[in-house]
Amino acid sequence: MKSNPICPRCSQPNIHRSHRKSAWERLLGLAFIHPFRCQVCTHRFFRLKPWTHYVLVVDDLREYARVAVNLQAAYAGPSDRGLGTITDLSVDGCGMSIKEVPLSDSSFELRIELPDGQPPLQVKAIVRNRPWPGRVGFNFEGMSPTDRVRLGRVVRPQRQ
After folding, report:
1. How much is the pTM?
2. Where are the domains positioned within the chain?
3. What are the helix (H) ranges across the chain?
4. DSSP state of 32
């Protein structure tokens, strides 16, 4: 089985092939130079892997893989607030099951309760989509560097 490279920034092995963004990057692929993205620190980098072709599955166009979780969270926006359960999580966003779906697409503050008694994460997010009743997808817009590292620790153990 082929092993993926480790991230040059944070030294974690939680790496996924990234989408090529330009014709130049497609040309680099012919020379076995492929883009990767760290799922922990979000760093995007290129790696030479001679005679190795990576197949990029396009089922999901997300740049960051999501992991299944069961975390309690609260959301608050200008006119909406409530509680929910985060069912999938990445360093870039999350999916939440909630009883009352927020009507606005404005910015929200999410407070995500972490396992093992850790202090909750405070994240600014926007509604990305509402795939079905009782379900909302959020993209994270703002997070402190400390909280980003803590979030990476929550996501990382489940991806290895």
Report:
1. 0.64
2. 1-65, 67-159
3. 23-30, 145-159
4. T
